[in-house]
Structure formats: structure tokens, C-alpha cells
Amino acid sequence: MDADSKKFSRPKIDGWIFFLVGLIAALIVGWIVFPLVLYSEKSQPLSFSHSSHGPESDAGLECEECHFFYKDGTFSGIPGIRKCMDCHEDPESPLSEDPEEVKLFTDYVGPEKEIPWLIYSRQPDCVYFPHIAHVKMANIECKVCHGDFATRKTPPIYKVNRLTRYSIDIWGRNIAGYKKNTWDKMKMDDCADCHKRKGKENNNACFVCHK
Amino acid sequence: MELSRRNFIKFAAGGLGGTMLSPLPWKLIDDIAIWTQNWSWVPVPARGKFSYIKTVCTLCPGACGIEVRKVGSRAVKIEGRSDYPVNQGAICPLGMAGLQILYNGGIRWKAPMKRVGPRGSQEWKEIPWDEAIDELAIRIKGLRDKGNPEKLAAIDGNQSRSTMALLIKRLINSIGSPNYMFMPREEDTHATANFLMQGTNGPIAFDLENADLILSFGCGLLDGWGAPGRMLSTWRQWANNGKKHKTYLVQVDPRASNTASKADLWLAPFPGTEAALAMGIAHVIIKGKLYHKKFIENHSFGFYDWFDEKGVEHKGFSKIVLEKYSPQMVENITGIKRRVIIEVAKKFASAHAPIAIAGKGKGTLPGSLYEFMAVHALNALKGRVNKEGGSLITDDVPLAQWSDVEYDSVAKDGLIKERVDCAGTPQYPFSRSLIHKFTDAINSGHGSPIDTLLLCSANPVYTIPDSQSFIEALAKIPFIVSFSPFMDETSLMADLILPDHTHLEKIVDIVWPTGIQYPLYALSQPVVKPIYRTKHSGDVIISLADRIGGQVAGSFQWTNFEEALKERVRGLYDSGNEKVSWADIKKNGYWYIPAHSFGRWTDIFKTPSKKFEFFSTEIELALKAYSKEKSFDNALINLGISSKGDEVYMPHYEEIKSGADKKEYPLLLFPMELINLASGWIGNPPFLNKTLFNHQLKRDDLFVEVNPKTASQYRLKEGSKAIIRSPKGELKVRIHLFDGAMPGVIFVPFGLGHTAYDKHLKGKGVNPNKIIDQVEDPLSGQPVWWNTRVELIKI
Question: B113-187+399-500+535-577 architecture in CATH?
Fold first, then answer.
């Protein structure tokens, strides 16, 4: 009998081990390996410090001085090199001792070349997003969507999705899509959630953004 | 612990379970969807800074304002222009898809071409512009040298008041030919009705925005009628008025079109009996004395019985309406219940600002003159002429006139010859162009009375009813020149192609689009540089005139088309209404007078009686002139009028007769127009093909709409294949059962069945024009396109 029961029960346990090994391996792949493989890291061309430009810093610039609205209501986004040159005009007299500023002068201000910033919040072409409706009309702070950039010393690491070519910040840094803060994700559902919460559900009609 | 088959399966099951419990599959699904958008062959506009160019869309006569988004030199998106008075941001699907007309190289002529093979063989040789224009100039000079300038003709599709149309007409006339023709259009039916009843020549203007009841006799207000963008934004405005002030829409339509489905009340009379319905409504208003007494008594002529100078008594409009159009009689004609007629009439009469409008579908094809008069008579009965929310009368846009053409002796001799199409002759006193008569004239003789035909902004081989006869006529014309930018059906039959730019590559003007309630002048300006070796037809005409030389060149003293525009625009500045210079117009893109002076009934009517004429003196004069040649009864027969007595001069119902036998052809073919299917000379862009349902177009098969009752009589089911046969030919179609289609009528869309263009259009569906058995509309002589008797054969 003993021999028989052993004979029959062992494969059951063995089987569960195989099952568990498969399960755990897949969980490791899905939760840990997959995100590592899916995203590649890129660094910004310059390590720009918002904290040394912002309102609290010596430079004491207000957000709107660089990220301004044009007269027609369109948003300037990331400022062009000419905006940088308003202050960083003379390579002979840099404003700091930071090597990043030297790089700014030699690589971009000198040849007057635009800095190829990697944009965390870049959305597909099929999306129309008016900053003015959100910032000026709805009075939403920048950080609600972008996170608190104003106090950052260095830009976050830019991770690009190898398949979609969009930044990780669109799906969110949490691979499960879990979000804690409003700025953790920038997918369509996040736009829609916020519209719904603010009683602007009418703005969730397709052609409001996809036109 | 061996890895047996069983254990491997367990491992795999664990792996599968683990995968499903991880974000991997869900995230991948999302990413793969986005990845497909990044494939290299998926067209995506280049990234870059946006620039916007404001202009006006000229793909249809509506002329809505558009804003084109560009990245670098490439136009990437067309949107409605919100600062433009006509459409206020709204735009139709065709306007939006305009980039496919610009960038689709497969449908465009890329340079001047000369035919080298036999006609229709599509063997072409690219030639330089100079050579192309010279060839035409030499041909025209030859005609003039032989003393036959009238053998030159033009068929024009440009809007009547536009500088392009004026320029083409000026060219033809200065050369010495009276044969300037234009495509049949609804604008002319309106203009004639206005002329006969009001004596005015200004454009039609409907203040729909301020009307509270709209009685639409077939106008597809939501199906692309007028300026489609305007109607979409007006609809929004009506909806925003709130329930209390909601605009009430009565739609008269044989089919549940978009407009009929959205209307407050839908009436479906038998097609062609709309005039009777209007008269029935007039009957109820007159009988109940619900009309506007002040207007009728002081400012109208022919409402009551009257005596002429000779003391002969004439019946008034009111008497004829009361005698002949009781609701019961009208029910018998139209099929609309008398109770409904009375209800609609009472609603119309009691509304604060009602308006009645006529014109089928998109409102571009000619209508029935007596019907338009009958509908407009309803406006007059309620004093809705030149009133807020009514039908307005206004002066034309005050553009400057060019200096008069100085005709040389050749031109003078040519111009006194009769027009080939008989327009304006005593038989067709109120028509200015009749292409089907032109076709008849060529097909009836041995030789062609026309030697050289110019075709501008038109594709008649495709858009003219009974297109087969037109094709036969073209084959007889020795030399055909097409200015079309597109490889359309007509230009493929030409001998010389002088390709124009497309609408986004050139400057043209828009002078008061159809139905807009205020004078408007606008410029459509180039958005991109010409992509191919095309040339603005206006410039080509000026340079052609220069090469013909003599007095002809003298009438075209401009170096380019823009100068000709500029000279006309000076009139706006000189008018003093609203100071505007060429620079202002170029910058703003438009000029208009929003304020209108309403009322003024004592001085706005320019008829011989200086009143609104229910009894049209102009018809009386025309008939008098014609009956000098023929007996009065014969004159009426030739004009296609079957009524007798005083009714002839007044709005009334005329049955449109068809030559086909009702027994042999028991059904009616009714071509319909859809807002998402371009039906004019512009080929439907592929984007719009995608918006057609599978029950409208499936691969190459076109579905026609048939009422299930009618279909069951022929044992046809959804999707069945059938042949529609008219005396003119056959169409192979499939059946779509539609409860919203009137029984006994087959609805076929205009816009498919091209035999030219590229793979997206060629051979897709069928073109109803091919089998339209046109008859002439009484009095106007225009082709009736909606009254073809057909039979349906199951295959």
C-alpha cells in the first residue's frame, strides 16, 4: 500500500512544483524582466536644473517666463534656444561654474542650435491638447499633470518604450498602470477621469481631442 | 522530478497563469496597438512647428472658411475656420478631406498634355506651357480668320459671380462667340423665380438663422445643402435656442434623409408634386384669411381678380388656389393626408418667423421653376419677403465693373449668331445656358456646329444627366480643351489639357455663396505652392488672349489673374459702405455687410408693377413675344406648360411628364445626395469612401435604397442583385431595404460609378446620370434629373 501511495502522490507534488516554477518564473518575467526589456534609457542632452532657475532660486524666474502662451493662445512648451540666450548670452561670462552651462554654450548657444530635449509628455499626433483651456480657463497647476518639475535639480531619466517610441511617463512608471498621483500617468483614460471628476464629461466626446 | 510531458504541461500552465497575473499581456496589447501607428508606411505628418493658413474652401459652391494646418511646407489638416461668418468653425466631410484632392498624384494632371493616340486611348505627350497655349491660340485665330468665331464654346462650372466665370465669358465673347455655357445649377432656378416674382437679380438669401419655422421642400439642410458648414453651425444654433424658442423644421422629402430624420415633421409627397403641396398649404392660408393683409393688399400684384388695360378680367392667385388646390385635391395629387396639409398650413401661418425654401438635396442642381415660385408664394402670403428670418432681397456685392469689351468686326459678326443651346431664345426666354440643348444640336446634325470646346471647373461627362448623349456629342467636336486639374471623365476625352491648380494652390474669389443672408466677398488663397507643373486657369486665359492679339488682347490688359481680381475689388473700396482695400482683403480674406435693411416693401420690388407679383408680368411679356412666332397654344406646348389661362403666369403645379410608359417602367429613379459623398465635379476622396456603410457600397457594388414593400413585389431581399433599366440604359446594383424610402421609388446616390480617377473611385458603384431620362422643366427648360421612370429586374 505504502509503495503504492508513494507512487501515486509523488508525481502530484512534483507536478505542483513544476507549476509553481512556471508560475514564479512567469511572474518574474512579467513584473521585472519585461519592464527592463520594454524600456530603454536615454539621458537628456543637458542636465537642466529647474531648481536653479525657478522662483525660489537666485535666477528667480517665474514659470511663465519660459513656458509662456503666445498671443493666439497656443503654448510655447519647452522654450527654444533663443529664450536661453536671453540670459546665457556671453560664453565669456557664464552665470555659474556648472559644466552643464559650458556644454550649453559650446554645443547650442554658439552654433545657435535647438536643444533636442526628450519630452516626457509627448502625445501622439492624433491628440489635440490645448494648454490654454487647462491652465488659463480651468486654472490647473502645471504639476497636476507634469509632476513637480519646478524644484528638480536634475531631469528624470527618460525611458522610451521600444515598441511605441513614447516616454514611459505616458503609461506611467508603474508597469501595472497603478497611479498614486495625478501626474503618474498620461493616457487617454486619465484625461477622461479628470474631466469626469471635474464635471466636464462633455469634453470626453471623441472630437474634442481627436480632430 | 523528471520533466515528463505531464509535468511540462503543468509548467506551461503555471507559466501561462503567471503571465496572466503579470502586466505583460495587457501592457503588450496596448503597446502593440500604438506600435502599429508607427509603421513606416503609415502616413504620419512630419513633426515640426505648426503654421496655420486661413482660406476659403471652393470644393462646393457653399464656400466655407477653412484653416489649414501646415508643418513646414506640407499641409497636414483642414479645419473649419471659426472667425469666418459663413460657417463659424463648422465644416463638412468633403472640406475636411480636401488634402487628398491636393496630394493624391494619381488623380491629377501634372503638366500640360497633348493627346497623341486616338481619342480615349489615353496616350498623352507632356508639352511645355508655351506650346500648349500657343496651340490653342492658333486654333482660335484660325476660327476668327475663317469668320467662324462662334464655333468656339465654353462649358464652365465656376460660380456665376466669380471672377473666373466672368473672365471665361469675357474671353469667349471678345473672341466673337455667344456660346458661353455653364453647368445646370439651382442658383438659376432661384434667380429666375426671384426675377419673375420680385424683379430682382441679386443672389438668393435666406435668413434661416432667425426663422422659427422652416418649411423645406426637399432641401437637405443636413445633407450638404447650401454652405454645409453654415447649416451645421445653424443647426447647433437652433438647438441652443432652447425648447421654448426651438426652430420647428418641416421637411418635405420622399426619403428619410438625415434632414428628414431629424426634422420635427416629415412629409413625403410623391416626387414632383411638391408644388401642389405648397399650393394646398396656400389654400388653407387663403381660405382662413391667415395671410399678411398689409403685404398682400399694398405690395402684391395678382392676388385678387383684376382687369387689364383692355378691360379683360383676370383671375387672381387666390381664386385659382381656392378653386384648384383644396386639401382634398392636393391629397389626391401628393398623397399627403388633407388633415396634415391643414395642420402644416396652420403651423406655418401662426409661426412668428416662418420661411419656405425650395431646392432638392445639396441645392446645387436645377429645380422646377413653378415649384420654386409656388414655395416662394408661401413666403409672400405671410409677408416673409425681406423680413428678419425670411427670404431677403439685397443688392449685389458692389464690385467694380471691368472696362467694356471692345469688339472687333469679327467678334461683332460672331456675336449676332444664335446660341447653339437656344438659351434666351423665345422658346427658352428665362434660361441663360442649356447644355442638353447644346448636346441635342450637336447630335442632331451631321457636322458639329462647335469646333473648339473649352471645359473649365466641370466634369459634364460624369455630372450631366443622360451622360451618354453628351459623350456622343463630345465625340463629334473636333477639338476639346480641358482646364481640369484632375484626370476626370471629361478631360480624358480632351485633346489638350491645360491643368489648373487645385483649390489649395491658387487664388480665386468667392462672390456671395448661395443662400447666405448678407453680401459677402471672400478670397480663397494659396495654402501651398503648386505641387506640379500646373497653371492658374485665370493666368492661362489672360496669356491666351494676349497671344490671340488684336482687340481680344485689348480686353485683357492685366498681367495676371490677381490684377483682374484687384480691379474688381476696388469697387468695394469705392462703394463706401465699408472701406476696404486690396491689402485688407488679402489680409482678412473676406468682406461682408452683416447689417441688413429689412422691410422697404415700397421700393425693393423691381417688377413692372413695382410689387411682388403673384401674376408675373415677365412671363406674360415672354409669352406674348413667343406667340408672335407661334400660336399661343403651340407656344405653351413648346414651353412644356400644360395648364391654361391665367394660371400659366402664376405659381402652380405642373405635372412633369416622362416619355416612358408607366406600365413598362413602373418605378421612379430618384438620385439622392449624401453629405459624405462628393457628387459634383470633384471626385470623392478615399477618406469619404471609408465613411460609406457596407449597405451603401461594398467593394465595387453599389446598394440602392428600396422600400421593403416594393422589393418584395420583385422578390428582392437585402443584398439581392438587380438591374435598374430606364429607356436610356441599365445600372447593375444591389438592393438595400430601407423603410425610410418611399415605396415605388428607387434611391440611387450621386457620386459613385466613376470611369476615371484612380483605384479608389474608378469602377466603384454606378452613376445614375448614365440612365437619367431627362425631360425639360416647363418654362425654364432646365433638365429634370429626378423623374426617370425605370423598371427593376432581379438577376
Answer: 3-Layer(aba) Sandwich (3.40)
